[in-house]
Amino acid sequence: MDLSYLKNKRILIVDDEQELLDLVVSVFRNDGYQNIATAKSVREATALAKEFRPELAVLDVMLPDGNGFGLMEQLRKTGDYPVLFLTARGEEEDKFRGFGLGADDYMVKPFLPRELLYRVAAILRRTYREEKTLVPLKNSVIDFARAEVVRDGEHIPLTAKEHALLSALWRGAGRIVTIDALCEAAWGDNPFGYENSLMAHICRIREKIEANPSQPVSLVTVKGLGYKLLVEDK
Amino acid sequence: MKSVPKLIRRFVGWLLLSVVLLAMVNVLILFAVVSGQKANAGPWAAAKTVAEALTETENGCVLSDEGAAVLDSAGAWAILIDNDTKSVVWSSENLPDSVPQTYTLSDIAGLTRGYINGYPAFPAGTQSGLVVLGFPKTSYWKHMWPSWDYQLIAHAPQIALIAVGANLLVILLIYAVANIKVLRSIRPITNGIRKLPSGEPVFVRETGLLSEIAHHINATSEVLQMQKRQLQKRETARANWIAGVSHDIRTPLSMVVGYAGQLQSASGLTEEERHKVDIILKQSGRIRDLVSDLNLASKLEYNMQPVRCRQENAVALVRQAAADFVNADPDGKYPIEWKTREDLGVCMVSADRDLLKRAVSNLLQNSAAHNENGCTIWVSVEEKGESCVICVEDNGIGASDEQIRALNTAPHYMVCDEAVAGQRHGLGLLLVKQIADSHHGEVLIGHSRCGGFAVTITLPVI
Lengths: 234, 462
Hints:
CATH architecture of the largest domain in chain A: 3-Layer(aba) Sandwich
Strand content of chain B: 15-25%
CATH architecture of the largest domain in chain B: 2-Layer Sandwich
Number of helices of chain A: 8
Radius of gyration of chain A: 20 Å
CATH topology of the largest domain in chain A: Rossmann fold
Structural class of chain A: alpha/beta
Order of helices and strands of chain A: EHEHEEEHEHEHEEEEHEHHEE
Number of domains of chain A: 2
Order of helices and strands of chain B: HHEEHEEHEEEHHHHEHEEHEEHHEE
Shape of chain A: elongated
Strand content of chain A: 15-25%
Largest interface: A-B, 35 and 38 residues
Largest sheet of chain A: 5 strands, parallel
Oligomer: heterodimer
CATH superfamily of the largest domain in chain A: Response regulator
CATH class of the largest domain in chain A: Alpha Beta
Strand order of the largest sheet of chain A: 2-1-3-6-7
């Protein structure tokens, strides 16, 4: 799936450590992000946000003239864009507070640059979806917008459950999504006892996306743990 | 305190026993004293002896030597009152002048019960008259009216029993009243002493009989509270210090990890340079994990980590930890085999989701950390009776019996107050133990079936 349009998004990074700002900026720039602005304090960030109009903010929590939680509330007054906290404060209370205020993600330092990029890309992808979301697989393409699979020119519709399961698998593409997480995605908060139904749905999905459902190459089983969706450009 | 009523019962028992023993001793002494005497036999017998020793002769009455000896030994005098004339016809030589020489019938009836001019008188009859012995004034006391109500004598045993019973009752009442007062004084004291070990602040009103003890209890409570505050202060300071250090180290470590990460994906590095970058990244990861573990272990140790237990499906939770581990192992050096029975989809436990997942992740990381060349890890969840048993085992290098024993029994250096030489194993297992403890569970470390390492966490199911 082509995600190059996300690289033009305006990203505001706020941290009081200049060296860390330089690092994060270089991480983003190396990955192709072009519109990046930085600030070292709450005052600087709020002033900058009015001109820069960010589409994503990466905030530290501890700032010299306030904290990231307060800054987030101020930024939200000027625009409803996603916020990711990148902080050394790893206490549960801080995480809960950040998520409670509506943060989209919370990363504790030290962080791996690649992980930061993945998380930012995921947030941007969720927030700024393209009209047509196509996910290419080995033998087919999933069109989530139309809730169908296109295989050999044939449009095969997805049921609501299949759509929910494929969405969950797509969010964790390339990684194991556990049986329990899939059941929860399809059947809600009380997903116990649906393991057999899940297997039946997975079989039907394979019939739609795989060339040979008995030897799946895109939706593979990890025995006992769950399933993994392998996407072509991932 | 349960011992107080016991103490009171014992006191009452001793009291009753003392009363019974005292009564028995008194009866015995009375019996001994009374049996040593003949009731009032002395003066009456002396009067009879003298009467028999007095013989009438032509020259008048003569007292034999035996009779005279009786009078001498008692210091008594004697007279003989004639039956017909009611006057004294014979008297001993030591007869006081104040003793009348003639008597009326009324006088005779009176002297039989009482005295002649203050001398205790004891009569004895003869054929011709009445012999009366007069003893010294301070030798005998005579009861002038020796008669009782017949009913009183007839019911004497019952009356005696009632009297004894009433006495006992009165004694018990007095004792009970006295004890109730003492108990009222003791109760707050015992309550205070009972509360002391719980660590709660104790205050006992310093009044009444035991005010001094109450004062000492209050003082002890104050000392304990002060020590508790100091200990908490010290523990909080220590945990805060560790939290502060772990916080402050994160930002510089971010830069090390960040730039090393960028270098890793940079082109133009030689193989050796790339290897060095890998080492920097790997060791930075170790520092990051160590800081994180140290912080959590310190908080769990000092009860500063909130444990938010909810009903959780242990199978789903362990499976998620296993999936996360596999997802983070792109090379597949540490394949996981899921050994949970297929029909066990749910095993509910009361757990803090994040903490329990952290414990399982730590065990998986532990297997990876000690087996650099890779190993297979088996993960299972089993429901055994009232317990949920989570097992993580591998076919890696394992540990010796000695090491296993030490891991199971020896405290970690972080929570050990003795010498810590030779206890430098990582914090991962300590965390697992602490998390299991906080969930009322236990951890057992041992050998796996394949000679590797095996750890089981047992938690109560709900």
